[in-house]
Write a structure and sequence with these properties.
The protein has two domains: 5-204, Alpha-Beta Complex (2-enoyl-CoA Hydratase, Chain A, domain 1), CATH 3.90.226.10; 208-254. The chain is 45% helix and 16% strand. It is built from ten helices and ten strands. Strand 2, helix 1 and strand 3 form a beta-alpha-beta unit.
């Protein structure tokens, strides 16, 4: 039986592939547990300098595998505590991706629906094939967006678009998602993985300390005043200024050569 999440090493890049293509990579309990466990390992691994997440087959992820939340026809029978699975499985995964100090690229290779769409949006840089679609499908089964969806949609798109996407559950094309600022870029299907690997390799060659600091500062910007942001930039810049990466970066600039971050 194939692993539900595949891990491939490509230099400093760790490539993770959601691998339940027969179920459009829908999240089983085992898959979310395995994905979180791999991310925990990669966070501690100094040889991993960037992460690339994608899906196997014709879709990125169709969301939660509803066969694990089955209820009796007609509403009879016991109810399922959906909040419990959110608390124990999905929220820890979202928090891990959000706080991951290694830069994360997500390559959306097909449909990204429900939890699959909102997990994808936790990437630092999200690319999507032009054939991909993002669908907030929760309302169709009587739920609201989870996995940070209400937060991400509102902060990235604004209240009007967030409410319409969540309430209507209409598919959003990759090109429209890029135009609206939901993702970084939509690319031709044939070029998706080449572009994604190129980005992940580029990030792996940068200063991981600087990238982590950038990520943290931008995430906090929505709730900070300008004065608080200025103070944070001062403090973070002070810490980075004492780092080996800063010394190497300046030396490389003066010597007109590419810096060798993390390789000294």
């Amino acid at each position: 039986m194939s692993a539900s999440v595949l891990l491939e090493r490509d230099g400093g890049v760790a490539v993770l592939t959601l691998n339940r293509p027969d179920r459009l990579n829908s999240f089983s309990t085992e898959m979310t547990t395995r994905l979180k466990g791999i991310l925990d390992e990669l966070e501690r691994d100094p040889t991993c300098r960037s992460i690339l997440l994608t899906g196997a087959g014709r879709g990125f992820c169709a969301g939660q595998d509803l066969s694990e939340r089955s209820v009796a026809p007609g509403g009879a029978g016991p109810r399922v505590d959906v909040g419990q699975s959110i608390e124990t499985r999905f929220n820890p995964l979202v928090r891990k991706l959000r706080a991951m100090p290694k830069p994360t690229v997500v390559a959306v290779n097909g449909v990204a629906a429900g939890a699959g769409a909102n997990i994808a949006l936790q990437g630092d840089i999200v690319l999507a094939a032009k054939s991909a679609r993002f669908i907030q499908s929760f309302v169709k089964i009587g739920l609201l967006p989870d996995c940070g969806g209400t937060w991400s949609l509102t902060h990235l798109l604004g209240e009007a678009r967030a409410k319409a996407l969540a309430m209507l559950a209409e598919p959003l094309s990759a090109e429209q998602a890029a135009q609206w600022g939901l993702i970084w870029k939509a690319v031709d299907d044939a070029d998706l993985m080449t572009e994604a690997r190129k980005l992940a390799t580029q990030l792996a060659a940068q200063s991981t300390g600087a990238l982590a600091a950038i990520k943290q500062a931008i995430h906090a910007a929505a709730t900070r005043t300008m004065d608080a942001a200025l103070d944070h930039e001062r403090d973070a810049q002070r810490e980075l200024g004492y780092s080996d990466d800063f010394a190497e970066g300046v030396a490389a600039f003066m010597e007109k050569r590419p810096p060798n971050f993390g390789k000294r």
